[in-house]
Automatic annotation (TrEMBL), chains A, B:
<dbReference type="GO" id="GO:0003677">
    <property type="term" value="F:DNA binding"/>
</dbReference>
<feature type="domain" description="HTH gntR-type">
    <location>
        <begin position="1"/>
        <end position="71"/>
    </location>
</feature>
<protein>
    <recommendedName>
        <fullName>HTH gntR-type domain-containing protein</fullName>
    </recommendedName>
</protein>
<dbReference type="GO" id="GO:0003700">
    <property type="term" value="F:DNA-binding transcription factor activity"/>
</dbReference>
<keyword id="KW-0238">DNA-binding</keyword>
<dbReference type="InterPro" id="IPR050679">
    <property type="entry name" value="Bact_HTH_transcr_reg"/>
</dbReference>
<dbReference type="InterPro" id="IPR028978">
    <property type="entry name" value="Chorismate_lyase_/UTRA_dom_sf"/>
</dbReference>
<dbReference type="InterPro" id="IPR011663">
    <property type="entry name" value="UTRA"/>
</dbReference>
<keyword id="KW-0805">Transcription regulation</keyword>
<dbReference type="Pfam" id="PF00392">
    <property type="entry name" value="GntR"/>
</dbReference>
<dbReference type="InterPro" id="IPR036388">
    <property type="entry name" value="WH-like_DNA-bd_sf"/>
</dbReference>
<dbReference type="InterPro" id="IPR036390">
    <property type="entry name" value="WH_DNA-bd_sf"/>
</dbReference>
<dbReference type="Pfam" id="PF07702">
    <property type="entry name" value="UTRA"/>
</dbReference>
<keyword id="KW-0804">Transcription</keyword>
<dbReference type="InterPro" id="IPR000524">
    <property type="entry name" value="Tscrpt_reg_HTH_GntR"/>
</dbReference>
<dbReference type="GO" id="GO:0045892">
    <property type="term" value="P:negative regulation of DNA-templated transcription"/>
</dbReference>
Amino acid sequence: MSDTSYAYAQVREAISQQIAEQKLTGNLPSERELCATYDVARSTLRQALGQLEHMGLIYRKNRSGWYVCPRKLKYDPMQHTSFLQYTTAQGFQPSTKLVEQKKQKPCKEIANALELDGRTSLTSILRVRSVDGRAVVVEELNFSNKHLPNIDKHDLSLSISVLLKNTYHHHNVLYDIAVESCCLFNPIAQYLNTYDGALGLKVTRIVRDLEGTAFEFDREYWRHDALMIENKAKLHF
Amino acid sequence: MSDTSYAYAQVREAISQQIAEQKLTGNLPSERELCATYDVARSTLRQALGQLEHMGLIYRKNRSGWYVCPRKLKYDPMQHTSFLQYTTAQGFQPSTKLVEQKKQKPCKEIANALELDGRTSLTSILRVRSVDGRAVVVEELNFSNKHLPNIDKHDLSLSISVLLKNTYHHHNVLYDIAVESCCLFNPIAQYLNTYDGALGLKVTRIVRDLEGTAFEFDREYWRHDALMIENKAKLHF
DNA sequence: GCGCATATTTGGTATGTACCAAATGGTGGC
DNA sequence: GCCACCATTTGGTACATACCAAATATGCGC
């Protein structure tokens, strides 16, 4: 049991319990109503709501109110199953929207990771992926034109993995993945219908061929409350 | 570049830049001083500090002040390298403190994961691990007495992996790991010298033998700003 | 019914104030 | 030189208030 010696903690526990007992579903009462209910100032209430948000129990949509979180999506970044595949397998309705595609020079971090000099061009796409109509992740994919000739000539709104397999014959690849918590700022926060400074999880992925040459660098910005990273493996001591 | 149309965002960016340029190291000026510097109210300043905290740039120690974060520890939960090993390899000074050891009945979640009924006993230890004198993770390890007979008779302040290998001959195991963001509450928050409701990363691990029988269930509560999860793997499409 | 302008509600931002408890720094006694 | 005590500083909690902008509900004209 958590500490309940403070007003915000009491409000937090009260709402938390209401959610656990499913007495609260869908959207919560307005902040001003909740203030009256628990007899606290709005800043105190918002502190409680903020913690429930960090716990992944509730979230805010635009400026319209607070809602109880749907269940989390389970995601194994080491598996090469597609977004479509693992979301539907878990009973979600996925959708993807390509926001932007451009050819550009790499930033310092990408140039370093892909061992490119600053002049080499990069094909980048930005897409927003949703489950059940809720935007959960913004993906930024960067492909090295040097290692994937003419990749910018293809339709990148289709499956990238199929393209890599069929056109570039990358059947076996090395994955190099990092996960860390982060802060979501505009414009990424806006794509995720959340606010400037919201909490997120950042997944960084470097994809290499079997010789170890990196040809792709991805950044995924997830809603922190939408995601559970899962890994399964066999190990020997 | 992030949105800077609001006061808190301007303060955030200003301090963020100071840190990036290493003009700020060690501890920050007091909140009241910073309020005067940037001419904002304390609550506005604290909003900015909170976001910098979420970004992993600064952290608070007890009630004594704000400090610039040290670099993150890289950790691959799928590797079976010990805490001692991977921390020293990254140039940190690790230490571990065993807080508690007890024999108890499993909670619902553990009973379910380890396929135990409510009567079977469980040997649990709680330990706090630090790098460079900073507590970074609270580990709760739970061992099934049924599958690891007399485990509570051993000294569990020593290396657990050595014990599993030499005494119980578990040379090959299956790992089942989940990572998600969470909120740290007392008393765990206190072990990590942080505050009730602080942001964290939760790593859950189920360990099985090669037949798939689970004998260990662990929960790790990490400071969100101390950790970067890393995974490397070879995949084929 | 439908579309559009308007009023209301809602969360987001911001200020100021007050008090508390823990941590820290200093001071004096031994 | 060490320790106990005290004053000060610091962040943590909590309140009340005000205004803004976006989202939503309302109602009118057609």
